[in-house]
């Protein structure tokens, strides 16, 4: 067992983890932060994307022990201080960028990371960036729109399409 | 203009807030005190005899509580099939036993042999490696046509052959169809494969079983589209638990697409083991496990013949289909190639004679059942592909050939047993051609040609039967259940409302759209209405969500229950205002007496119902809660025109989808935003089938596409933005909302549009390719070009 200490969503947490424990399992099972999801076992789907030291990481591809000392952000920590949705979260609701919600935490975390590094991405850049995140419900159409809108770019109103 | 939050408005989804903030509650998020973890040990061969299982070493591993095998399930029922098909000769389909854990033989890669239950998942997996299983490999039965030849190895030794059933529809038309084809001026024939797919909802399946010894009550938390169906099937047929002692909860469910309709062995196992071990038992599927244990979809091999007269009027259609059932019969498997497929073979066209033959075959593969569209995509694909081929053979426009044969008068009774109530196929065709700028296509094709690319335009027009289904009809057709839906509308004393619906939402947004309907009927704010679903202890017996049935059947039940509420509330209002009940009107949450200025508010009436001091107790009971069960009079028939434009690189076979337009007729629409999202998702899955996805087995029965490394899921870079439109509306005539359902349309109508576009592009480049089996990968397209 390994003792680890890290900050998750701004709060210090500690844990005892087996060497093989994945970061996503530590978040979900030990910390009960069940917003981060597991959709595959080959690091393909991106439902588990979190931020580690500010960078998007698939939490199924990192051991919990490796996160010792790290700053981790999950979907649970994305809302504004007053509890309102973040700009990206709100854009997903406004533009119907989610249906079943299972891939959504990973999509929001990926999109948030994208906008940090590229504040006004083109449609093609958004699609390229999301290559590691699979959604089965939306066909990506409204996810792309949500991210465009979150970046302050114009998107056509739903009814006008 | 619809009012905000009312019927027809694109109200934002209330459920999104919890999904976006990580506070959704999916089944894997549920952890019960003292829970154990189950790990299924599955067959890695397609077909084999189990000579022995030695669990001694595994049992001695740390944390292991018990290892279960088939002998622990003696006296327990098999996983049942919910539909019986009768063969042409009058015999019932062959129905093998589907044990919870394999008995004596394994029949597909992934067939569960044993389950290790341990204190942690890691310990269960470690111990599984120590399990000694002696399996003698047997020859695998993979090809359907080979499987039903004499002397083929049998998947089930106790059945007479691998033929499940041989179904003819409509058998009385068989000879007339044969004559019409023999006498036709022209017959177009096409042989095609509808590729096997895996539904792949992003949330893998999960089951958590719990047992309350004090009350002898079982609870199963499961990733299901229909918790009541699971309760019925598992309780009555597998474990023998009466309904009042079994609660099934399907909380937030991360997508279904059909794969979460069925009752699975893992659900029965966790429920069973929790009682045996007196502790909760949890199983979470890995994605690899999902590929070999979730029911697959499609997998038809078909020959279709379309007969025409000299003027290109369709005179007859004959099809012969081999439908793969896999190794066992999944819950609704037998109905998919028959009643959900044969009945749709008329499409949008007035073909007077149709005969459909379906041979359902057992093979050593994962069971096949309904996947988004279920039977209707298979029917649409055949029809819309053969029409394109016929147009080419006859030298006419595929659009005009469709138009010429469109059904234009409704109601229309097809020769395949269904009656379309409404539709306007020319309208959706006109609309989609406009959206796709068909008029400008030739100029764009010229431009592509200059760039060394081949541009193609593909059109498809579909019909589907949704709003499943009239119970008396499906009973005659072999269903072992009714297909009504239920709703309880509970009005609270303060006027707020809880609606308990038998429908289940796993991405469709019912919590929002259903509330729009009830709030508009009463005239109160939608935030005053909550939708409760997914728990058999809370909702009335309901059949769940699939077959685009939720708003058409579940919504209708909710409307009926709300109508009963309004009728009773009017009686109370009449008493309060000392007026005649017939003079009471309800508008915007106010009851008024016609022709007077008297009024009472909704909240006054609801309060009176629960504090009945001034109340007509001699006429009506206190309280305001009503239940309705709605059994539809007919299916609903959404239809639409889909157009696709592609560019093919003739040097590499790579296909780029440049645009996709969908003009659907869903009848009335409750929430346009949600409807558009459903079409986007359906079209994306249709794209996946047409262009990328293939569930592949090798000749020995190994599943070679069992992860996202090998099974090509469409990603954001693969898809264009879609143009969708639902302005053509011919409301359903037989349900109270005039709705038809929209969940499956995209997956039904789009595959032939994609393929027709590619074939059109190849012909424009001089390559006489008549068909390429899906998925149209660069390799397949390039090979077809080389062989043309």
TrEMBL record, chain A:
Pfam families documented for this protein: Fer2, Fer2_2
InterPro entries linked to this entry: 2Fe-2S-bd, 2Fe-2S-bd_dom_sf, 2Fe-2S_ferredoxin-like_sf, 2Fe-2S_ferredoxin-type, Beta-grasp_dom_sf, Diverse_Oxidoreductases
Signal peptide range in chain numbering: none
Keywords: 2Fe-2S, Iron, Iron-sulfur, Metal-binding, Oxidoreductase
Keyword Metal-binding recorded: yes
PROSITE patterns (UniProt xref): 2FE2S_FER_2
Keyword Oxidoreductase assigned: yes
Source organism, top-level taxon: Bacteria
Gene Ontology MF terms: 2 iron, 2 sulfur cluster binding; metal ion binding; oxidoreductase activity
Domain 2Fe-2S ferredoxin-type: 2-78
Stated name of the protein: Carbon-monoxide dehydrogenase small subunit
TrEMBL record, chain B:
SMART domains: Ald_Xan_dh_C
Keyword line: Molybdenum, Oxidoreductase
Gene Ontology molecular function: iron ion binding; oxidoreductase activity
Domain Aldehyde oxidase/xanthine dehydrogenase a/b hammerhead: 21-139
InterPro entries: Ald_Oxase/Xan_DH_a/b, Ald_Oxase/Xan_DH_a/b_sf, Ald_Oxase/xanthine_DH-like, AldOxase/xan_DH_MoCoBD1, AldOxase/xan_DH_MoCoBD2, AldOxase/xan_DH_Mopterin-bd_sf
Cited PANTHER family: ALDEHYDE OXIDASE 1-RELATED, XANTHINE DEHYDROGENASE
Name of this chain's protein: Carbon-monoxide dehydrogenase large subunit
Annotated source species: Palleronia salina
């Amino acid at each position: 067992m390994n003792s680890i200490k890290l900050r998750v969503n701004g709060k210090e947490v500690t844990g005892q983890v087996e060497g093989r424990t994945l970061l996503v399992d530590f978040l979900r099972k030990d910390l009960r932060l069940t917003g981060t999801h597991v959709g595959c076992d080959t690091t393909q789907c991106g439902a588990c994307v979190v931020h580690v030291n500010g960078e998007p990481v698939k939490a199924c591809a990192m051991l919990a022990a490796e996160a010792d000392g790290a700053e981790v952000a999950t979907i649970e920590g994305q809302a504004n201080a007053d509890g309102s949705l973040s700009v990206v979260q709100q854009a997903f609701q406004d533009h119907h960028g989610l249906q079943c919600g299972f891939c959504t935490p990973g999509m929001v975390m990926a999109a948030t990371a994208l906008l940090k590094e590229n504040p006004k991405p083109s449609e093609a850049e958004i699609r390229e960036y999301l290559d590691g995140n699979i959604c089965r419900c939306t066909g990506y159409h409204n996810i792309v729109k949500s991210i465009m809108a979150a970046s302050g770019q114009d998107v056509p109103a739903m009814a006008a399409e | 203009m619809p009012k905000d939050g009312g019927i027809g408005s694109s109200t934002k989804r209330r459920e999104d807030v919890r999904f976006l903030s990580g506070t959704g509650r999916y089944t894997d998020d549920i952890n019960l005190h003292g829970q154990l973890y189950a790990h299924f040990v599955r067959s890695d061969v397609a077909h084999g005899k189990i000579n022995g299982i030695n669990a001694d070493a595994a049992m001695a591993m740390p944390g292991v509580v018990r290892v279960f095998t088939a002998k622990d399930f003696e006296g327990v029922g098999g996983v049942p099939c919910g539909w019986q098909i009768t063969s042409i000769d009058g015999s019932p389909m062959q129905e093998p036993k589907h044990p919870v854990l394999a008995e004596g033989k394994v029949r597909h890669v992934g067939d569960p042999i044993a389950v290790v239950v341990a204190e942690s998942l890691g310990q269960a997996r470690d111990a599984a490696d120590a399990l000694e299983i002696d399996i003698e490999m047997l020859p695998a039965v993979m090809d359907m046509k080979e499987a039903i030849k004499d002397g083929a190895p049998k998947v089930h030794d106790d059945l007479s052959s691998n033929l499940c059933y041989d179904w003819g529809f409509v058998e009385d038309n068989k000879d007339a169809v044969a004559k019409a084809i023999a006498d036709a001026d022209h017959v177009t024939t096409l042989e095609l494969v509808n590729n096997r797919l895996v539904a792949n909802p992003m949330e893998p399946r999960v089951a958590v079983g719990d047992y309350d010894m004090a009350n002898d009550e079982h609870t199963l938390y499961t990733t299901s589209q229909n918790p009541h169906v699971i309760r019925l099937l598992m309780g009555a047929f597998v474990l023998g638990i009466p309904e009042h002692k079994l609660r099934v909860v399907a909380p937030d469910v991360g997508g279904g697409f059909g794969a979460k309709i069925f009752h699975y062995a893992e659900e029965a196992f966790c429920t069973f083991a929790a009682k045996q071990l007196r502790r909760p038992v949890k199983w979470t599927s890995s994605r690899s496990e999902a590929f070999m244990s979730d029911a697959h979809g499609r997998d038809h091999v078909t020959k279709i013949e379309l007969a025409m007269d000299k003027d290109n009027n369709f005179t007859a259609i004959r099809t012969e289909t081999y439908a793969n059932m896999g190794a066992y019969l999944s819950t609704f498997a037998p109905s998919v190639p028959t009643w959900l497929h044969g009945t749709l073979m008329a499409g949008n066209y007035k073909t007077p004679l149709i005969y459909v033959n379906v041979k359902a075959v057992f093979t050593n593969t994962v069971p096949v059942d309904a996947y988004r569209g279920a039977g209707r995509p298979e029917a649409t694909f055949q029809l819309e592909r053969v029409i394109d081929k016929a147009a080419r053979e006859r030298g006419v426009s595929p659009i005009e050939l469709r138009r010429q044969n469109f059904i234009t008068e409704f109601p229309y009774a097809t020769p395949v047993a269904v009656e379309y109530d409404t539709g306007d196929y020319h309208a959706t065709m006109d609309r989609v051609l406009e959206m796709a700028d068909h008029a400008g296509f030739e100029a764009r094709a010229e431009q592509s040609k200059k760039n060394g690319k081949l541009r193609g335009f593909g059109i498809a027009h579909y019909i589907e039967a949704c709003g499943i289904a009239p119970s008396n009809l499906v009973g005659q057709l072999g269903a072992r259940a009714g297909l009504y839906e239920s709703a309880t509308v509970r009005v609270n004393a303060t006027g707020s409302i809880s609606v308990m619906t038998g429908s289940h939402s796993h991405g469709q947004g019912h919590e929002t759209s259903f509330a729009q309907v009830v709030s508009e009927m009463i005239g109160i704010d939608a935030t005053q209405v909550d939708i409760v679903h997914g728990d058999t202890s809370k909702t009335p017996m309901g059949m769940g969500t699939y077959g685009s049935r939720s708003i058409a059947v579940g919504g209708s039940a909710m409307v009926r229950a709300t109508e009963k509420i309004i009728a009773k509330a009017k009686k109370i209002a009449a008493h309060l205002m000392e007026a005649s009940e017939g003079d009471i009107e309800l508008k915007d949450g106010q009851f008024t007496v016609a022709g007077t200025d008297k009024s009472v508010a909704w909240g006054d009436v609801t309060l009176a119902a629960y504090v009945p001091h001034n109340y007509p107790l001699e006429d009506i009971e206190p309280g305001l809660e009503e239940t309705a069960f709605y059994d539809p009079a007919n299916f609903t028939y959404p239809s639409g025109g889909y157009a696709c434009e592609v560019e093919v690189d003739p040097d590499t076979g790579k296909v780029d989808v440049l645009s996709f337009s969908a003009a659907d007729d869903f009848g009335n629409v409750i929430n346009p935003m949600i409807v558009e999202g459903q079409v986007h998702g359906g079209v994306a899955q249709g794209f996946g089938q047409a262009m990328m996805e293939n569930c592949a087995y090798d000749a020995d029965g190994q599943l070679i596409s069992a992860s996202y490394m090998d099974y090509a899921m469409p990603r954001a870079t693969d898809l264009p933005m879609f143009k969708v439109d639902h302005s053509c509306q011919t409301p359903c005539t037989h349900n109270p909302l005039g709705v038809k359902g929209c969940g499956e349309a995209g997956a039904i109508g789009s595959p032939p549009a994609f393929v027709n576009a590619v074939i059109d592009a190849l012909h424009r480049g001089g390559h006489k390719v008549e068909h390429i089996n899906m998925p149209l990968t660069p390799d397949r397209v390039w090979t077809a070009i080389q062989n043309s």
